[in-house]
Amino acid sequence: MKSGVVVFPGSNCDRDLMVALELVTGTRPVALWHAEAEVPAGLDLIALPGGFSHGDYLRSGAIAARAPVMRAVADHAGRGGLVLGICNGFQVLTEAGLLPGALMRNAGLDFICRDVALEVVTTDSAFTRGYRPGETITVPVAHHDGNFQADAETLDRLEQQGQVAFRYAGEVNGSARRIAGILNDRRNVLGLMPHPERCVEEAHGNLDGRRLFAGLVSVLA
Amino acid sequence: MKARVTVSLKPGVLDPQGRAILHALEGLGFSGVTDVRVGKLIELELAEGTPLETVEEMGRRLLANTVIENFRVEPA
Description:
Radius of gyration of chain A: 15 Å
CATH topology of chain B: Mth169, Chain: A
CATH class of chain A: Alpha Beta
Structural class of chain A: alpha/beta
Number of strands of chain B: 3
Strand content of chain A: 15-25%
Distance between the termini of chain A: 6 Å
Largest interface: A-B, 20 and 11 residues
Order of helices and strands of chain B: EHEHE
CATH architecture of chain B: 2-Layer Sandwich
Strand order of the largest sheet of chain B: 2-1-3
CATH superfamily of chain A: Class I glutamine amidotransferase (GATase) domain
Oligomer: heterodimer
């Protein structure tokens, strides 16, 4: 499985994500610099890491979403290639229009950094097939702008079409319908606020994130 | 020439910052504030003759996230 991790100025989970991907897939991902308009051919997955791209200036993910590399990411998604956005990566995907909705300031205004319980809402995607439907997993969050909002029509459509991938088991940040992660309608793009790359090895004390990456391997081999 | 772009949250979009400011105003004893909405003011210095439609396009493509925000362009 060939993967690439985009690096924006201010990304700070890119190395963690590359380590997790290499650990689970056995292949070292390539780093994709934000200013490059082209990415190597044959990538199965392009992942957008967490962090504070461009200092969160204007809006979280707003400037990164207009970076040259994002056209290549959109083309990759358009070809059915897998795209994963974690935390700031999720914010970038919504800003780029690859996923619906927006991620706003947490309802309590605090930066939230802790383990949260997540319900796996759908296992019908390459990203979630490693879980059991309805299973509750534990994955850490670390964000200031994770409050997912969209109009009621969009939220209904996401739920009806099974595009809600993960839901917070309890109240975390004010997200509409406690949404923690969503898929696009083709189910090849996932954005989520929690950090699966931070729970992939024994030393992390929790392996619940590992199955997300393992699920990808089982699809792509 | 200058232009001013005012970005505001769409009606109905929850504004946690606005709520916090509202509570702080109440704490200072200002009564009668029923709602607070926080927006952004972006001032652009532009080449003479830049059409305002171009600034509108800047608003649509970057300055505002039209999923949650409205924006208004005016010459300054």
